[in-house]
Amino acid sequence: MIGCLTRITRQRTVRLISHARHKPPVLEALAPTFGARDSLEQLESVTSGRVIAQQKGVPGIAPSAFAAGYGYTYVNAAIAYTRLDGNRFNPRDWGAWYCGFDVETSLAEVSYHLTRAIRAAGDDFDNTTSYVELLADFDAEFVDIRNVEPVPACLDADVAIGYPNGQALASEARQAGLNGIVYPSVRYPGGTCLAAFWPGLLQNFQQGQIWTLKWEGSPTPQITKGLPI
Fold first, then answer.
1. What pTM value is reported for the model?
2. Domain boundaries, the chain
């Protein structure tokens, strides 16, 4: 396995999620009592990937190991929902909590991925999307590949190269019971990212600022704090 184990003690790491996903439970307004809410949650569980994961688990994570308490829905959703081809350090079978050490790094990462999605859709770069900061602290050992030379293939900017190699490394680390991977941002020079495999690693979960990314005919978005006016 490449890299070494390093204890990462970091406060207020930043994960960004689309503001469209940041909302109260969809059935909340229909629940006049706690009993009714329980019944509606059972109905929601039929189609909710997060609720199903909390009930049945995902490969390597039992239901009892999912997060509980304030913010648990966002934490568990990161583990439960995956992309068809996975991401840099997770396959399609299980997710990970990705975050940056600072908001600039996270903004660069989400800007790249949404720009790529807009281009793939054949759009003319007319798009406005807002993101919410999800903040969390970490104090645990992670596989550290920040200073590996030569630069490993898992950090290749081409996702066709970087993702398969990163997923292989992540699967090896996860099967060994390791916590995740800390790595240099591929999209923001000098930035640092972290991929955490286990929900219980997150501490002091908080919600932070809102940021808006606006594309106006250019693949480079304008970034402003707050919701669009």
1. 0.83
2. 4-225
